[in-house]
Amino acid sequence: MSDLHKEVSDLEKKSATAARLFDIRTIIGGLFVVYGVIVTIAGISPSDADLKKAEGVHINLWTGIAMLALGLFFLGWMKLRPVQPPAAAPDTTDTPGN
Questions:
Q1: Which residues span the membrane (predicted)?
Q2: How far is C-alpha 31 from the geometric centre of its chain's CA atoms?
Q3: What is the pLDDT of residues 12-52, one digit of tens each?
Q4: pLDDT of amino acid 10
């Protein structure tokens, strides 16, 4: 019986790890950080034509910074409030009277 219990607990640990790995906050945060870095780099030295189109606003720089902030928020949220593993279901096989 202990081998079965050990196997079940190993599967529960793997399931919790997979749930943390594929948490949607990780995916969203990672993508926003990557794209935020790219857009911020593009916005650091805009061309005169880009500034004229944006009416003098460094739109790529501000958008990149906002994307970085949002991505870091999601990653921080995931770090501070990780996904909890599902609670173990009560064992109902030993109920008397069945």
A1: 21-45, 57-77
A2: 9
A3: 666 666 666 678 888 999 999 999 999 999 999 888 998 89
A4: 73
Enumerate residues 6+ apart whose C-beta is below 8 A from 96: none
- Residue 98 to residue 87: CA distance in whole angstroms: 25
- How many CB atoms are closer than 10 A to CB 29? 21
* In contact, 42 and 87? CB cutoff 8 Å: no
| DSSP letter string, 9-39 | HHHHHHHHHHHHHT-HHHHHHHHHHHHHHHH
Rg for the chain, CA atoms, rounded: 24
pLDDT tens-place string over residues 68-93: 999 999 999 988 887 766 666 666 66
Residues in the chain: 98
Residue 68, both tokens:
């970085």
